[in-house]
Amino acid sequence: MASNVNPTVRRRRLGQELRRLRELKGMTAEEVAERLLVSQSKISRLENGRRSISQRDVRDLCGVYDVEDHRIVDSLMQMAKDSRQQGWWHAFGDIPYSVYIGLETDAASLRVYDPQIVPGLLQTPRYAEALITGALPETAAGDVEKRVNVRLRRQERILTAEQPLRLWAVIDEAALRRVVGDRQLMREQLEHLVEQSQLPHVTVQILPFDMGAHPGISGHYAILEFPDAADSSVVYIEGVTSDLYLEKANDVQKYSVMYEHLRAQALNVEASRHFIANIAKEYAR
């Protein structure tokens, strides 16, 4: 597989194109499912990019939509082939949030709000290990190590010199005060957070307790944006047993407006660095 092929993004682009062809034909997902003798849920999963698409699926759908241009069919068939390849994360085995990793790997920018913990892309290995062990107490040591390694591999997106991910993180004060591991570990984590916040493509803002109620009170979320205009932005909300991906323009807009309010209420960049550094000193006592 070529290194620049991202199967998750290929599935999304292909699904969007198949939806466009269906709508041009004036058909509903239910009507397409009836024609192909499959479930409506399969058509929906193919269109939202949550399911691998076979070249046979593409051929059958192009037949239903009367696509006669062989160049279009060939292009869609190639996208289907690419979408069944494996991304780097598959080498680590079964990762529950593999869809998100695929999106993050190809994203141009990421805006994240975290009310409880330091965001994964800004975590130290020791903090990540202690966090995963505490959050998932029944997880075997080998699986904890695998999750930590995946997290460190993800961090290459903000460490690479070529086209790094533009990261903007608004972090609640609770994440700085919650002792994950021990006080020494927390001091190291907060000092690391200050260092990372000085990267030109990383912005960190802290939302202090005394700001009171705010638009992010309902919990963690992230907004991913992509370099290709054909790829719609995605709001990611992590769940215990399943994750939620919002792609409708209206939903993305609502969360984007919420994020702007969070940024406005949070401390500015310089004040945030001082705030983090002062709490780090408290852990050193």
TrEMBL record:
Pfam families: DUF5753, HTH_31. Residues 18-73 form the HTH cro/C1-type domain. It comes from the Bacteria. CDD domains: HTH_XRE (cd00093). This is Helix-turn-helix domain-containing protein. It comes from Streptomyces albidochromogenes.
